[in-house]
Amino acid sequence: MISAFLYWTIWLIAIVLLMISAISLLNLFTFVRVRRILDIEYQSPFISILVPARNEERGIRECIESLCNQVYPAYEVLVLNDDSTDSTKDILEELKVLYPDKLSIIDGTPLPSDWIGKSHACYQLSQKAKGEYILFTDADTIHSPYSLLSLLRTSGEYQADLLTAVPNQTLTSFWEHVMVPFMHVLYHGYLPNSLVYSTNDCRFSAANGQIMFFRYDAYHMIGGHASVQQSLVEDIDLAKNMKRNKGKVVLANAIDIVSCSMYSGFKEVFNGFSKNFYSGFSENILIFIFFLLHVFTAYIIPPILVLIGYLSEDQSLMIWGIVLTVLGMLIRLSSTIQFSFPLYHVILQPLSGLFAIIIACNSFLWSLPKHGRKWKGRIYTT
Question: What per-residue confidence (pLDDT) applies to 147?
């Protein structure tokens, strides 16, 4: 027999899941998509592609080769070697010989104490850029030959000051399948995509640092990466700054033109998301706790109810648990279809929620003064 408290709790969870399901369904049909463009436009503004690289030996060759083989007629590729300790610099020097007219290598300056590494690297790159448009992209991405054409066309269609996009994620390990697509659920289920580009309200901001395509004058208007020098979520903060300055931000699906191998294995997944998960909530402890409670009640409690109902032979509780679990999986299904993940990902939703909570708690611990966020051999205490 379900108690009155549990009954109303179940109804509350159901209402929340139905609301998120509605947003997910809306986004499934309205999410902006970067379509592959095959024809070169008559007017081709000069574009600077900017790649910060620190210890990227695993994928830097494929990334830069893809960028140096764009069909677009007027562009440059600038790569900043950010004090790499692996073979990144050697690989870049080899590539420079192969692409002398397209590729420029910059050796980064020492990291100041009041900067985060990626923002500092991007800032240095921006100082060398000559383009009317600038594309910041990560060193673990691979671009189709039509990437620049497609990004430019989509940016023009929406008159975007910042076009930021989600690439196709290449997943290899089990924990990548568990966690990386869960972050896409947040893009897809918790914010109507149209509100990103139709309003200047900073609360409706979203961005992905793997692809950030700016009009250079708009980037300069907001102060560039110098305005987010201490941010661990510089992509989101740049989007917020753009909106504060009445610029237009568009978040798009770019799986047709760019792929990304974000992390490899449990350790990279755990550390990579831990470094900035808490910062994604502007380090607001109340909102952070509320979100963790939401994830626990929405995605973890439902299968627990199924188990309790089964063991106690309470059919009503078991049926409610099944209904709530299925709703959570439908939210995952919409995101899975949008970003072309394997369909079996839907059954991972409860485990993804649990893993997200564990990572979030670790991210909070790393934010404490005596700890610090750790990434690529650096510790950030800001």
Answer: 97
- pLDDT of residue 1 exceeding 60, the answer is no
Q: What stretch of H or E contains 373?
A: strand 373-375
The pTM of the whole model exceeds 0.85: yes
Cα 277 to chain centroid distance, Å, stands at: 11
Token pair for 121: 């690297």
The dihedral through the CA atoms of 147, 152, 158, 161 has a sign that is: positive
Domain ranges of the chain: 4-28+280-380, 32-167+208-262
* Rounded Cα distance, 329 and 349, in Å: 6
Q: Following CA atoms 225, 226, 228, 234 in sequence, which dihedral angle do they give, to the nearest 10 degrees?
A: 20
Q: Is 83 helix (H, G, I), strand (E, B) or coil?
A: coil
Q: How many CA atoms lie within 13 A of 3 on its CB side?
A: 3
| 269, 355 contact by CB (below 8 A) | no
By C-alpha distance, which of 106, 100, 57, 107 is closest to 78?
A: 106
pLDDT at 374 over 70: no
The answer to whether 208 touches 235, Cβ cutoff 8 Å, is yes
Quote helix, strand, coil % in the chain, to nearest 5.
Answer: 55, 15, 30
Q: 80-93: buried (b, 16+ CB within 10 Å) or exposed (e) per residue?
A: bbbbbeeebbebbe
Contacts 24+ apart (CB under 8 A), 286-292: 288/360, 288/364, 291/360, 292/357, 292/360, 292/361
Asked whether residue 41 carries a pLDDT value surpassing 60, the answer given is yes
Name the strand (E) or helix (H) holding 15.
helix 4-30
Residue 284 Cα distances to 114, 232, 277, angstroms:
21, 14, 12
**32-167+208-262: CATH superfamily:** Spore Coat Polysaccharide Biosynthesis Protein SpsA; Chain A (3.90.550.10)
- Give pLDDT, residue 354: 97
Task: Kindly tell me if the per-residue pLDDT of 138 is higher than 90.
Answer: yes
Instruction: Select from 36, 122, 103 the least CA-distant residue to 65.
Output: 103
